[in-house]
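[Meeting: bench + compute handoff]

Bench side (C.D.) handed over the final construct sequence. Compute side (W.E.) agreed to return the predicted structure before the next meeting so the bench team could plan truncations. Sequence as handed over:
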Amino acid sequence: MKLITNNIYYVGVNDRNKALFEGLWPLPYGVSYNSYLVVDDKTCLIDTVEVDFFTQFIENIQQVLGSRPVDYLVVNHMEPDHSGSIALLKKYYPDVKIIGNKKTFGMMKGFYGIEEGDIEVKDGDTLNLGSHTLKFVMTPMVHWPETMVTLDTADNVLFSGDAFGCFGALNGGIIDSEINCDDCWPEMTRYYSNIVGKYGTPVQNALKKLAGVTLDFVCPTHGPVWHEHIQKVVGIYDRLSRYEAEEGLVICYGTMYGNTERMAERIARAASKAGIKNIVMHNVSKTHHSYIIRDVFRYKGLIVGAPTYNTGLYHEMNVLLDELANRDIKNRYFGWFGSYGWASKAVEKIRQWNDEHLHYDVVGDPVEMKQAMTPEVECQCEALGKAMAEKLKQCC
């Protein structure tokens, strides 16, 4: 356990064993499941942890409370990595009152069969614990429909659920002032873009509700407790949820025998020669797509290319474009290229993806290569890279 401030304790756990978060997203640095305990005239637990870690979790709680009961449990978010320990917690503290909103309890019945001991709250409702008063703020679709955040008005502490979280286990330190946060920023962007990224408008709505609120600590359900870097963290969420981007170019390509990759190299060199320094290249069959999606959120320009495969679009590129469309990323500049051996389909398929789903601003002329690089194709690739660079220089 860790004292954060004025009888507010961290009682969360670390997971360094899971390879994929939600079975999808790589966890090279692990992940934390954060839970918090407010000790006052009444005791209140804020969120629980994934059920596999319950033994450690209950030990953390008892280390703080001793023989005292947990009087209240606030459920900010019902996703099982945060709600999974509720049923077991009730076995230890059968009289605990569970606080959530109407949608919370519908999910709680479905997940865990729990239908009693609940206190339903609405936007702006409060709960007095003694010297601490908790205020509940509804933040639907950040990133589930039942999500809410809880504000300790006495100490200016925001228990933010999945908002402001990031991947990465907590290696000793809990509060940002205790740790080197350099690894947090790319992992926060990757967390946001893959987990929350589709819901930019709800995130903006939540930020507006919290605008003007003094915050001394922000306590998310993943990653560090924010204290020194609150302004930066909120700024990252604000920028990403408005789909703002830096000057830079993401080039994603699929390749079977290296010919399409040669096109990508020519495009990148031309963009660099034209003055773009932030260029990242990803082979869609090698780089996990969560890192590509992170970079598309970060940079304004996107050029994709792939070969035709079985008279369609190369599979991994098709998957990536579907993932990008699902996140509804807005306001990007887009170019594309493709290759084929005997059936010309890739370039047309990418065009269809943009026309029907992505709706990005097209820059330059698409480039199509038959079989292998020629001087003409090389010039066309260079023209595409240069056109994108000039567009980026104009806008960013």
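W.E. noted at the follow-up: The first strand starts at residue 2 and ends at 5. C.D. will use this when planning the next construct.
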